[in-house]
């Protein structure tokens, strides 16, 4: 259920603008698992998730206002999530000393909540409260303050400080935490109390914005925590995360765009994330793009996976797009991927993989039809398959039908018990207008193949969109 509300409080001086968004999502499904006895179990999930977002703008005091520009803007942004599971999936979860605190039937989470100021005095921006930062190579959240000062256009200096948002804290979501540790572990050898210790965070950045077509940000961040249950000879605190990140982008004449992202993990002494992309619009019908990525998994400073983890790889791919006639588009993609060898792999083993895909799409006012084929071979095994999907508007704004056929086969070099197989799938469904602002989505799916005789699933979503 989605609802939007906009209101203005009029007065002799100024008005406040409010926007409230509410969304309710219900899900019901079953997941098959193999019980310890070897029998099949069906785990039932009946989930109800609600999102509530509030945005208040134009709350600047009258004395701060200037009618000639947009200086001194103040606003408030809040987003909350309520999640409950009424199914049997969590009824038999571990309890007592074996409790996994990440598995609860009810969650109330504040995703973000902050007061923001923009262009104060023509130079200062700030955010105070729970806030989320994400860019090409970084994603984190903290409770604290972020202040940016425009020194001289286009250069700004930014500083931020606070504490990491962790799922163990009240009203907090675990999705922002560093990977590699779990609050579910109650083994005394793992120091379970360490998960409850606050993690201060601080950092800064230099930002270029508006320097011709170029935007760039060079940032530093450090996160640390006190040692729980400190033993003799142990430090009183330790670093959980310390990184330097550079992101940049540029657009030229509406035809060429480029982006770059680099992240150096000071804690483990490794450049663990590299990304670069270039896209050229050759003509109104043709486009070329190239992408490069390197990713080396790194983890929380408290995690042992920083010592034993592997799986770094480099990926290089190129894409060509061609519009033959209005509505008909072809695409072709090729890639090469180089994997870092694990310590147990022989030196002569191949660490390369490559492949590509071909696609065609036809779009009209009432329908869309798309076909894709792909092939991937090399390190780890081989995979090849195809996909055909389409949507057709049977009655304008009232009834849409959709369907999909897919099939693929694989050969694995790492799983001897299931080293090859095939899967075929079919989906069919539709979107129906019940009344103005009310829709019903229905979808049925079945997959058959080497490992399963059938994987039938059904999904129904009732959507209500009301604006006042």
H/E series: EEEEEEEEEEEEEEHEEEEEEEEE
Number of helices: 1
Number of strands: 23
Oligomeric form: single chain
Q: What structural class do you assign from the helix and strand content?
A: mainly beta
- Beta percentage is over 45%
**Radius of gyration, Cα only, in angstroms?**
26 Å
Q: What is the general shape?
A: globular
- Unreliably modeled segments: 1-13
Architecture overview:
- The protein has one helix at 305-308, and strands at residues 2-9, 16-34, 40-57, 73-85, 106-120, 124-134, 139-152, 155-164, 200-211, 214-226, 237-252, 256-265, 270-280, 286-295, 313-325, 328-339, 352-363, 367-378, 381-395, 399-412, 420-435, 438-449, 457-467.
- The two termini are 14 Å apart.
- Residues 1-13 have low confidence and may be disordered.
- The protein has 1 helix and 23 strands.
- The chain is 1% helix and 63% strand.
- With 468 residues, it is mostly beta strands.
- Strand 9 (200-211) and strand 10 (214-226) form a beta hairpin.
- It is globular.
- It has a 23-stranded mixed beta barrel.
Could you list some keywords that capture this structure?
single chain; 468 residues; mainly beta; 23-stranded mixed β-barrel; 1 helix; 23 strands; 1% helix; 63% strand; globular; disordered N terminus
Secondary-structure blueprint:
Blueprint: E1 2-9, E2 16-34, E3 40-57, E4 73-85, E5 106-120, E6 124-134, E7 139-152, E8 155-164, E9 200-211, E10 214-226, E11 237-252, E12 256-265, E13 270-280, E14 286-295, H1 305-308, E15 313-325, E16 328-339, E17 352-363, E18 367-378, E19 381-395, E20 399-412, E21 420-435, E22 438-449, E23 457-467
Parallel strand pairs: 1-23
Antiparallel strand pairs: 1-2, 2-3, 3-4, 4-5, 5-6, 6-7, 7-8, 8-9, 9-10, 10-11, 11-12, 12-13, 13-14, 14-15, 15-16, 16-17, 17-18, 18-19, 19-20, 20-21, 21-22, 22-23
């Amino acid at each position: 259920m989605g609802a939007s509300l906009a209101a203005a409080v009029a007065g002799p001086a100024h008005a406040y603008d409010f926007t409230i968004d509410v969304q309710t999502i219900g899900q019901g499904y079953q997941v098959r698992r193999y019980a310890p006895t070897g029998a099949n179990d069906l785990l039932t999930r009946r989930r109800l998730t609600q999102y509530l977002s509030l945005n208040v703008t134009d709350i600047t005091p009258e004395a701060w206002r200037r009618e000639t520009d947009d200086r001194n803007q103040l606003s408030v942004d809040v987003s909350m999530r309520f999640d409950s599971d009424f199914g049997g999936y969590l009824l038999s979860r571990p309890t007592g000393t074996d409790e996994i605190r990440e598995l609860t039937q009810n969650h109330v989470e504040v995703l973000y909540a902050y007061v923001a100021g923009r262009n104060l005095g023509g130079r200062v921006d700030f955010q105070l409260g729970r806030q989320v930062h994400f860019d090409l190579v970084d994603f984190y959240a903290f409770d604290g303050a972020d202040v940016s000062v425009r020194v001289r256009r286009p250069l700004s200096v930014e500083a931020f400080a606070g504490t990491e948002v962790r799922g163990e804290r009240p009203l907090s979501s675990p999705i922002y935490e560093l990977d590699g540790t779990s609050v579910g572990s109650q083994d005394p050898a793992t120091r379970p109390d360490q998960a409850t210790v606050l993690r201060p965070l601080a950092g800064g950045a230099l930002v270029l914005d508006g320097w011709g077509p170029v935007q760039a940000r060079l940032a530093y961040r450090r996160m640390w925590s006190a040692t729980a249950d400190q033993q003799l000879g142990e430090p009183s605190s330790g670093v959980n995360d310390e990184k330097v990140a550079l992101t940049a982008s540029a657009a030229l004449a509406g035809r060429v765009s480029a982006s770059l992202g680099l992240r150096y993990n000071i804690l483990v002494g490794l450049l663990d994330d590299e990304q670069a992309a270039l896209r050229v619009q050759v003509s109104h019908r043709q486009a070329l793009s190239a992408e490069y990525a390197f990713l080396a998994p790194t983890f929380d400073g408290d995690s042992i996976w920083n010592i034993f983890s592997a799986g770094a790889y480099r990926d290089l791919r190129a894409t060509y797009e061609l519009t033959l006639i209005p509505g008909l588009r072809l695409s072709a993609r090729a890639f090469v991927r180089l994997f870092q060898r694990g310590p147990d792999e022989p030196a002569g083993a191949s660490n390369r993989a490559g492949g590509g895909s071909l696609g065609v799409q036809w779009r009209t006012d009432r329908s869309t039809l798309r076909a894709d084929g792909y092939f991937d071979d090399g390190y780890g095994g081989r995979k090849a398959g195809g996909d055909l999907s389409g949507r057709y508007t049977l009655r304008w704004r009232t009834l849409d039908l959709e369907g999909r056929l897919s099939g693929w086969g694989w050969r694995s070099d790492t799983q001897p018990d299931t080293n090859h197989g095939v899967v075929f799938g079919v989906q069919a469904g539709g979107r129906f207008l019940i009344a103005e602002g009310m829709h019903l989505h229905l979808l049925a799916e079945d997959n058959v193949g080497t490992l399963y005789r059938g994987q039938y699933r059904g999904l129904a979503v009732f959507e209500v969109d009301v604006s006042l």
